[in-house]
Amino acid sequence: MRWLVSFSVLLGAATHGVQAASGTVWATPHDAYSSSVGVLGCKVNTDRIAYWPGSIDCTNLCVSLSYQGRTVKLLRVDQSQGAHDVSYDAWNYLYTGYSATEKPTAGGATAMEYSDVDISECADLIHTDDGKLPLSAANSMNFLASCLGQKDSWVGNNHVLYNILDPICSWGFDEACKLDWPNANQAACPHQLGTPNALTSAPVWNIRYPTGQKVKAGTSEVMSPADAKNAAYRSSFGGATIGLLTTFVSLWLLRWM
């Protein structure tokens, strides 16, 4: 496996870091969500993420990966040191035809075909109400500023900032913030920006390799049936929508009390 990764790195260096729009990569499974640019895992499908070499682009964020007639779309929101890692569930499905939670499989680097595709093909992987990329208001500003500086970049025109400190959504407040760019380079949030408040309402769940167990990111806690139901509900309706529904129900109850 090491020589394959080394070959990939050497090839990238030989082409001065320019990646083709399509080709073959040696895909490897990755079982812990992360994002080098602060994309919030509680608001995207963390089972469909690409962890690839090279910096994250402001427009080219969606990758199609295929193997033996099966294809998945992946959000490219994290940078690896050389390997072409993909979410374990995506790798397992491509390799076997089954989800990693259904029939988990162990394995390593596998030659798969990829192509960069339009971001619209990854729309169902982003779980914000308006389909905008969810970023950490406290820790995504360098990336966002670079995208705002690029005319008509997709991220520059399609982002939403949240007062959440980390990609696995364990600190902060699950609330949207506003950025008065370019007059300000810091977002304004309902609560103070960057407050390390323990956030428990929107956990990120990793699928552990090679067991297929769902485990809360940053812990060893295995998902319970109740957690599974809540995760499915959030995935179906989106975090912001749940908040609106909760507010509506509360107001309705107050009206009739």
UniProtKB/TrEMBL annotation:
The chain crosses the membrane at residues 231-254. Residues 1-20 form the signal peptide. Keywords: Membrane, Signal, Transmembrane, Transmembrane helix. It comes from the Eukaryota. InterPro entries: RlpA-like_sf. The keyword ATP-binding does not apply. The keyword Repeat does not apply. This is Cerato-platanin.
